[in-house]
Write a structure and sequence with these properties.
Oligomer: single chain
Structural class: mainly alpha
Distance between the termini: 62 Å
Strand order of the largest sheet: 1-3-2
Radius of gyration: 26 Å
Largest sheet: 3 strands, antiparallel
Number of strands: 3
Strand content: 5-15%
Number of helices: 4
């Protein structure tokens, strides 16, 4: 919070003010910071009616997200290759940990990665199965493409 944040004057019963003072002191915060923290927590506990979705909708949303996930991984993979190749790398690590893929079963996991792996193979890259997990995978250049050019 900064001094530029809007100010609000309120009236409190003395007992409540004393509770806030005590709690602020125990939490080594100012009274203002204590009040803001408690208000923010109270709003986190509220669920808006428009945020409630049916199980059927969740299934459809999840299905669509999985379909889009293949594209996200493909774009991320080639963005990583392009970025690292420009600084001299010939092996690439694609991180997927932020996508929380550990919740997928093995079949779904590999069906999501399959389009990326197929594209990599067509372009002369290799992905060893032992380097694949839900946190990412490593990409190398196929030996047949890894020969020095003649000068």
């Amino acid at each position: 919070m900064s001094r530029e944040d809007p100010q609000l004057r309120i009236r409190l019963p003395i007992e409540l003010k004393e509770k806030i003072e005590l709690s602020a002191k125990e939490n080594t915060r100012s009274m203002n910071a204590e009040i803001v923290q408690r208000l923010e927590i109270s709003f986190l506990n509220e669920v808006n009616a428009d945020e409630l979705i049916s199980a059927k909708d969740v299934v459809q949303i999840a299905k669509k997200a999985r379909e889009e996930l293949s594209g996200v991984i493909l774009k991320r993979t080639f963005a990583e290759i392009n970025k690292k190749a420009r600084i001299g790398h010939t092996e690439f690590c694609v991180s997927l940990s932020d996508l929380e893929l550990e919740i997928l079963d093995e079949e779904d996991f590999f069906s999501i990665l399959s389009p990326t792996f197929e594209q990599l193979k067509k372009l002369g890259y290799e992905v060893s199965e032992r380097t694949i997990d839900n946190n990412g995978f490593l990409i190398g250049i196929s030996d047949k493409n890894n020969t020095p050019t003649d000068k």
